[in-house]
Amino acid sequence: QSYCHRLQYDMYFLTSTSRLNEQVIDKIVLQLNRVYPQILTNEEAEKFRNPKASLHTRLSDLLKHLQKKGDRHCQEFYRALQINAEQLFNDLPSRKILKTPDPTEIDTDKEQYMLNDRGPVFFLACFSMAAGLALFWYCCNSETQVIGRARRILGFSPIIIGRHVRNICMLYLEDMSRN
């Protein structure tokens, strides 16, 4: 967003009652007049510091004048506002929009926990399946002679694997022992 659009968005907030007092507006105008780059000429600064005009009118005219001048002038206004009224600068509506996170951006803190949100039951199920497959592969290897031991382990495992799977494994082990 350009600074001119941000200033237009923040204009109502800044000109509403009691947001900026006369001293802060004078400091901002003086900073825009005296600090490099000079944003306001001496005549413009006197116009916006005129005590005969109401504070609301002076501030509205200043903001409109800066918007007409361009983005660089609006940026310098925000810098002056930040220096002279930091709390108000932080409360600007355009600043709150800039502070909100991008919904498409990946939050790495949340991403760390998303991988672990399944809980301990999921971990145990995956570990049991991996251990079962490793045991099954080890028992089916023709070089190993532990079929009897594996048969005893599979016989006592109705909790870990289902009854049908256990029966299939037992039948396979019996066929292997016959060959």
TrEMBL record:
Keyword Nucleotidyltransferase on entry: no
Quaternary structure annotation from Swiss-Prot or TrEMBL: Associates with BCL10 by CARD-CARD interaction.
Coiled coil: none
GO cellular component: endoplasmic reticulum membrane; mitochondrial membrane
Pfam family of the protein (one): CARD
Residues that span the membrane, as ranges: 120-138
Stored InterPro entries: CARD, CARD19, CARD_BinCARD, DEATH-like_dom_sf
Organism: Prunella fulvescens
Top-level taxon of the source organism: Eukaryota
RNA-binding found in the keyword field: no
Domain CARD: residue ranges: 38-96
Alphabetical GO biological process terms: regulation of apoptotic process
Bilayer topology: Single-pass membrane protein
Subcellular location: Endoplasmic reticulum membrane; Mitochondrion membrane
Keywords: Disulfide bond, Endoplasmic reticulum, Membrane, Mitochondrion, Transmembrane, Transmembrane helix
Identification of the protein by name: Caspase recruitment domain-containing protein 19
